Structures are given as C-alpha cells and as structure tokens.
C-alpha cells in the first residue's frame, strides 16, 4: 500500500508509525532530543556554577517574582496537555479536534512568550541586564535559549497547521505532528527544571 492509499479513513490507528519513513523520523528526532538534553544540561551546569556571582546587580532573591513565573509555568504545562489531546484526536482521525487543540497549544505558547518578554523587560529596568554579572549572563543565556525554543516551536506549529489544512491527515503529515508533540513536551520538561533550579532555588537562596 503506498502513501496515496493511506489517507482519510484508510489510516491506521497510529498513522505516524504506518511507514518506515515515519518511524525513522521519530527515531531520528529522539536522537536529536538527546543532543538537546546534553546542550541544556551544559547550560544548567554553567548557571548553577555562576548563580551567586551577582557583582553589583540584584540577587535572584531580590529579582524574581514567583507569581508571574508560576503563571507562565501554568500556561506552558497546560499547552503540553492540549498537545496530548491533539495527538489523541489524530489517532481518532478527527481533523477538527487536531486543529482546535493545536491552536490552543499555539495560543498558550505565545502567551508564555509574552510573559517571558514582560519579565525580561522588568528585570532590565531593575538593573539586571545581560552584561550586569556572570549570574545575569548565565540566566539570560539559559532562559532565553529556552524561550527561543518555544518561539521556534510556535512557528513550526503554524507551518504544520497550514500543511494540515492543505494536505489533510496522511502518513506524511501525521509523523510531523507527532514529532512536534515530542518537541513540545521536551520544551515543557526543560521549563520545569528551569522553574525549579533557576527560580525556586533563587528565591530560597
């Protein structure tokens, strides 16, 4: 059975794994995420080593406002749930619900980015710039790098939604949606570590 035959109601229960190409894409992406894990691990280690080097700038305890960060965390974790609902809808071949839940995921991701930009602007006003201290440089590198991943994910999702609208759900588009879901969960897990290591540990000194 070729790709043209695997569309619409002919799709199997897990269309992302229906072809060797789809399975290879998923495996390759897991390997990519392994590399990303090492990269973020290096950034975390650097931040932990430098987090007390505040120079003349404000300390983490003085700077961080957990209310804003907690709201951002809620938005991003909720977006992870809605991406799961989108993948479940894909397995049911419900294109309408796929679009709905991924659009909600996109909105939540953009709201998270908005809060992060607001947070960074507030920090700059309080004298916490990229060059203020080793602590500030490592903070902006780690948190900003994660924010860049969220922004990339949002753009990627827009492209996938356009492809879904144009081509429908097939064994070609399904692996792309599934791989995006893996990426988005990875971004959310990294944020949980950032929230714990950067913000919570920062507030407790």
TrEMBL record:
Q: Which UniProt keywords apply?
A: Cell membrane, Membrane, Transmembrane, Transmembrane helix
- Heme-copper oxidase subunit III family profile domain: which residues? 27-203
Q: Does the keyword Cell membrane apply?
A: yes
Mind telling me which GO cellular component terms the entry cites? Answer: plasma membrane
Q: Which InterPro entries does the UniProt record give?
A: Cyt_c/ubiquinol_Oxase_su3, Cyt_c_oxidase-like_su3, Cyt_c_oxidase_su3-like_sf, Cyt_c_oxidase_su3_a-hlx
Q: Where in the cell is it found?
A: Cell membrane
* Species: Paenibacillus hemerocallicola
* Gene Ontology MF annotations: cytochrome-c oxidase activity
UniProt keyword annotation of Cell membrane present:
yes
Gene Ontology biological-process annotations: aerobic electron transport chain
| Protein name according to UniProt | Cytochrome (Ubi)quinol oxidase subunit III
Q: How does it sit in the membrane?
A: Multi-pass membrane protein
**TM spans, by residue?**
27-48, 68-88, 100-118, 138-165, 177-201
Principal location class: membrane
Q: Quick one: signal sequence residues?
A: none
Concerning PROSITE patterns, the annotation shows: COX3
Q: What family, per the record?
A: Belongs to the cytochrome c oxidase subunit 3 family.
Q: What is the superkingdom listed in this entry's lineage?
A: Bacteria
Pfam families from the UniProt entry: COX3
């Amino acid at each position: 059975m070729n790709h043209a035959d695997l569309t619409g109601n002919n799709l199997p229960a897990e269309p992302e794994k229906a072809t060797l190409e789809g399975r290879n894409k998923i495996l390759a992406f897991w390997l990519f995420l392994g590399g990303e894990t090492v990269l973020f691990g290096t950034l975390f280690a650097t931040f932990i080593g430098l987090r007390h080097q505040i120079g003349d700038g404000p300390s983490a305890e003085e700077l961080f406002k957990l209310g804003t960060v907690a709201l951002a965390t809620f938005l991003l974790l909720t977006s992870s749930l809605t991406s799961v609902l989108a993948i479940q809808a894909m397995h049911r071949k419900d294109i309408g619900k796929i679009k709905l839940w991924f659009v909600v995921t996109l909105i939540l991701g953009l709201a998270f980015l908005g809060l992060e930009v607001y947070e960074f602007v507030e920090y700059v006003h309080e004298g916490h710039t990229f060059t203020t201290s080793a602590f500030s440089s490592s903070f902006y590198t780690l948190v900003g790098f994660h924010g860049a991943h969220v922004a990339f994910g949002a753009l990627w999702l827009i492209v996938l939604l356009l492809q879904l609208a144009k081509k429908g759900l097939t064994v070609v588009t399904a692996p792309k949606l599934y791989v995006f879901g893996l990426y988005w969960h990875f971004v959310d897990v990294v944020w949980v570590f950032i929230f714990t290591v950067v913000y919570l540990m920062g507030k407790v000194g």
